[in-house]
Design brief:
Pfam families: FDX-ACB, tRNA_synthFbeta. It comes from marine sediment metagenome. This is FDX-ACB domain-containing protein. Its cofactor is Mg(2+). With 205 residues, the protein is of the alpha+beta class. The chain folds into two domains: 99 residues, Bira Bifunctional Protein, Domain 2 (BirA Bifunctional Protein, domain 2); 88 residues, Ferrodoxin-fold anticodon-binding domain (Alpha-Beta Plaits), CATH 3.30.70. The chain is 26% helix and 33% strand. It is built from five helices and nine strands; from the N terminus they run βαβββαβαβαββαβ. Strand 7 and strand 8 form a beta hairpin. It is globular and about 55 Å long.
Length: 205
């Protein structure tokens, strides 16, 4: 899989001409795995000579290594006739993935009750990955957390030396009723408490 170029097509009204990056590729892979009904997906930062330092990750499904992806290193990129934009590449072992895809799965009805969307920004050590944060949010929030998206990574300034801020968009939803503000606040408080206890993460003010 290869990604490169502006994030969206030009439009007379509005367009986002910022280049696609590492997180766009991660989003594509995550969506693909979810569509295949694959579970226990883990991304782990790795170092590989083909890829830009700090922008490469391996992929495991149910503990089985199935590939890696990242932004092509500028020195590697200079050897080929590639676009000026950053180039993201993912190499996946299809033969390893295929046996993990379930033959059948249960369909979930379209939710009747509205979701609650909320942003959560946590300051963590550089060694803590976004995947660690997301996994603990899922574990703590349970079935009420139906979606988690990383939308911002910030370093410097208020984050402090050796730290980074990871901002997530969380979707809370109950299939049987509308969640109250108080219920969402309790779940959020529980998540923040567990992130602090397990990973030393602090809520960004």
């Amino acid at each position: 899989i290869l990604l490169s170029g502006p994030r969206s097509e030009q439009h007379w009204q509005e367009d986002d001409d910022s280049p696609m990056d590492f997180f766009d590729m991660k989003g594509v892979l995550t969506q693909m795995f979810e569509n295949l009904q694959l579970k226990e997906i883990d991304f782990e930062a790795v170092v590989h000579s083909t890829f830009h330092p700090g922008k490469c990750a391996s992929v495991k499904i149910q503990g089985l290594p199935i590939g890696l992806f990242g932004e092509v290193h500028p020195l590697v990129k200079s050897n080929y006739d590639l676009p000026e934009y950053p180039v993201m590449v993912a190499e996946l072992d299809v033969d390893a993935i295929q046996p993990l895809v379930p033959d059948r799965y249960n369909l979930v009805t379209v939710p009747v009750f509205p979701p609650v969307l909320e942003d959560l920004a946590m300051v963590v050590d550089e060694s803590i990955s976004a995947e660690q944060i997301a996994n603990l949010i899922r574990k703590t929030g349970g079935a009420t957390i139906t979606d988690i998206k990383l939308f911002d990574v910030y370093r410097g300034g208020q984050a402090g030396p050796g730290k980074k801020s990871l901002a997530f968009n969380l979707t809370y939803q109950n299939p049987d009723r509308t969640l109250t503000d108080e219920e969402v606040a309790r779940i959020r408080q529980k998540i923040v408490k567990h992130l602090d206890k397990e990973l030393g993460a602090q809520l960004r003010s």
